[in-house]
Amino acid sequence: MENATLEKTVTPAPEPDDTWILAGRRFRSRLIVGTGKYKDFEQTAAAIEASGAEIVTVAVRRVNLSDPSAPMLQDYVDPKRYTYLPNTAGCHTAKDAVRTLRLAREAGGWNLVKLEVLGPPPTLYPDMQATLEAAAALIADGFEVMVYCADDPVAAKRLEEMGCVAIMPLGAPIGSGLGIQNPAMLSMLIEQAKVPVLVDAGVGTASDAAIAMELGCDAVLLNSAIAMAKDPIRMARAMRAAVEAGRLAYLAGRMPRRMGADPSSPLTGLIRR
Amino acid sequence: MLNGEPWPLEAPLTVAELLVKLGLDTRKIAVECNEELVPRSRYGETWLKEGDAVEIVHFIGGG
């Protein structure tokens, strides 16, 4: 009985009005998840469900012509329920990225896309010159472009001014799980942005997602951190909780940092010998 | 060429006929010929000729 009462009192107040707007669409979940690297489609579907995500990224690849009746992602992750966000993963030139997204638009009918043009391994760092070139071509062609980019406030501003609908700087290299490596620059980038800013890539575990949200990001995009966890479904729940926790902490406003201690209990009224 | 592999074109063929021949669900795919998108509405009138490079893609899991 006592426990039940306690549980009731510590349930955090929900934040029903805390939604965000991306390209004119309103979303509640601030977690966007990828659909790659899972063991099978069943696991993909279960992890996405557990994450609470409303938007999922997908890749565009050649159909396997030797087995045209093989199960497809859409059979497990319903495009009517989730907003599909086609990406340009694997594209290293502006031309390939634009081609890929034109195909994606034809296959799915979606204008909202994730642009990424990558440099060579081992960093797969965003190729900003090619990214800017591809973004210009896509925007001219009527796409709504969410753009993966370097944590470069000058390039980010330029992408925003060109008309990108979201700026998505990396936290760390794709698939590295190294966490948020440049929080100070991300904070400045977030401060100056007039469109949603998402940390995309680099999140390794729940605390990384929370840190990104505490910096004031509108949302976090991740894939490997869930798919490569030992228990992806449980990690998906962890990420959901972390994004919510980080968002609440950002809204609550953290206490100032100080060098040295400041006791929490009053120093008056102490018993003395 | 079809998805990067040599593919013999025995007789003149439209994109629509090719997709039927391959047994593909046209609602879930997109087609490109010689690096140009072929809109769904033009599958029936787009004829393939010897030497064309055709790409047929769909969505798969990705991050």
Key phrases:
heterodimer; A: 273 residues; alpha/beta; five-stranded parallel β-sheet; three-stranded parallel β-sheet; B: 63 residues; alpha+beta; three-stranded antiparallel β-sheet; 1 helix; 5 strands; 32% strand; globular
Explained architecture:
- The complex is a heterodimer of chains A (273) and B (63).
- Chain A has 273 residues and is α/β, with parallel strands linked by helices.
- In chain A, 39% of the residues lie in helices and 16% in strands.
- Chain A has a five-stranded parallel β-sheet. A three-stranded parallel β-sheet of chain A has the order 6-7-8, with helices on one face. In chain A, strands 1-2 form a two-stranded antiparallel ribbon.
- In chain A, a hairpin with a 2-residue loop joins strand 1 and strand 2.
- Chain B is α+β, with helices and mostly antiparallel strands and 63 residues long.
- Chain B has a single domain (13-58), classed as Ubiquitin-like (UB roll) (Roll), CATH 3.10.20.30.
- Chain B has one helix and five strands; from the N terminus they run βαββββ.
- In chain B, the strands form two sheets. Chain B has a three-stranded antiparallel β-sheet, with no helix packed on it.
- In chain B, a hairpin with a 2-residue loop joins strand 2 and strand 3.
- The longest helix of chain B is centred in the N-terminal third of the chain and has 8 residues, at 15-22.
- The radius of gyration of chain B is 12 Å and the shape is globular.
- The relative contact order of chain B is 0.31.
- The model of chain B has no long low-confidence stretch (mean pLDDT 91).
- Chain A binds chain B through residues 34-38, 41, 44, 57-63, 65, 68-69, 72-74, 84, 86-87, 89, 99, 102-108, 174-175, 222-224, 227, and chain B through 2-5, 22-25, 28-32, 35, 37, 39-40, 55-63.
- Strand 4 (55-62) of chain A pairs antiparallel with strand 5 of chain B.
